[in-house]
Amino acid sequence: MSFHQKPVTFVKDVTIRVADLEKSLQFYREVIGLNVLERKDGRADLTADGKTSILSLEEIENPVPKQRGRAGLYHFAILLPEKSDLASVVRHSAEKRIPIGSSDHLVSEALYLNDPDGNGIEIYIDRDPSEWTWNGDQVTMTVDPLDFEQLIAAGGEEAKSWNGLPEETIMGHIHLHVSDLQEAEKFYIEGLGFDVVNRFGAQALFISDGDYHHHIGLNTWAGVGVPATSPESPGLESYTIVLPDEETRKNTISRVEGLGAEVVQEEDAFVTEDPSGNRIRLVV
Questions:
Q1: pTM
Q2: Which CATH class is domain 2-283?
Q3: Does the keyword Ribosomal protein apply (predicted)?
């Protein structure tokens, strides 16, 4: 998984707000297949390998129902290592009667569902990069129907059992609602240093480093000019971008501040927000 290792800049983990931590933990353990790495003061860090947190849940003290038509999380995307792993998730979902959406994006095969608060989740596998089609610096992606029969058949015997997510599972990418696509593009390209690898019509674009199909998706499907999600609503609290080294982080911070964004240090991370209020932790 070289697209999620240094020297590539990539998304490492995501923190979301939830209304009821116990209810959410049951869902993420029994439905998604993650385990609790650490739990403290209304927060739980979840892991696939027992060592590294890829998703954290923070309980809201006085929650309001999830707000629609706001900037914030569209979905976070959990990347599995093998086709048999995705096939196993399909079988598990069917046995649990969990409603899921699906799509074949050519570069990947994906399943979609929501957690109890309506936070969007994608679970996917990548096709081999040799199968991706590039037109110059743009990678071809579509929203085609997923061939479940082929997926299950290709998964083989390994797909018949579900024991949670495999240890090699990582956070593959994040997809965000933004209020202004041009502002977002300027921030993420000129500020954070990503490249645009796919323009999906006039309302969405996909960006990455190291020629991945996307580490971050950005869209205005919730509306143009929409406000940020309230901290009292379930949704995105923050996500982490890993930079190759301290010098790269220093230069990135300088560029982001040059665009007018504030950057503050919080323990080992420098924290900023994109123009739509999506909170980002910059680490090395």
A1: 0.97
A2: alpha beta
A3: no
